[in-house]
Amino acid sequence: MIKITIIGSGKMAQNLLRACLQSNFEVTSLWARNTQKASELANIYKVQLADSLQTALVQTDLIFLAISDAAVAEISAQCDTNAIVVHCSGILSSEVLNKHDNFGIFWPIQTFSAQREVVFKDIPIAIEANNEENKRILEVLADAMGHSAIFVSEKQRQQLHLAAVFVNNFSNHLFSLMHDFLGKNQLDFKYLLPLINETAEKLQVLSPKDAQTGPASRGDENSLEIHRKIMANEPKLLEIYDLISKSIATN
Prior knowledge:
The chain has helices at residues 11-22, 35-45, 53-56, 69-78, 132-145, 154-184, 193-201, 208-211, 215-218, 221-230, 235-250; strands spanning 3-7, 26-31, 62-65, 84-87, 103-108, 125-129, 149-151. It is an alpha/beta fold.
């Protein structure tokens, strides 16, 4: 059985810790610079809380650096170990792990929020490693969590990350803008939730291009102009509206 150490106490660390335990892997220790959050996680999931980074590295086969991208290089440099050192970033290069004889990348292609439990069996996991044996170990982890690993190059992983920003971060920002817009006009954002759900669900059977609807896709200038008048006092919204409408119309 693979022995795992998790470094971190944020959203990725919590979800990864839960997934490891649910898959019956042995998590030997947990450590984070935020000692209060790390202690809370250790108590919730009944795992050993290490009192230092070096203590966390003892008697482990694999170390997940489930921390912010900005912290990975610094923490990696402090890890004196023969275990496999793995970061969980979609964008960060593997070069930050090059000091180690064994390293890899394990990126769950999903968004994580503190108050929401994510089911790992539904998540594709992008994997890279510095040799075939380490790749195989990461594949075993991914498969045990319930979803087959996908093997990608660094460039492909970063391309996937870019695509993820478009479909998740950008779309959620639009949701946020419309939440505020509707609130100012005494309308409840929840009225849009069935529409949002159907928009995502039909992508299981249709390509995004075939699923595209709306006034810009059908060249409905009357509707477009009415929308623009509604946003006459919302210049930022109008700018985004016109940019996206033009993109839809020309693609």
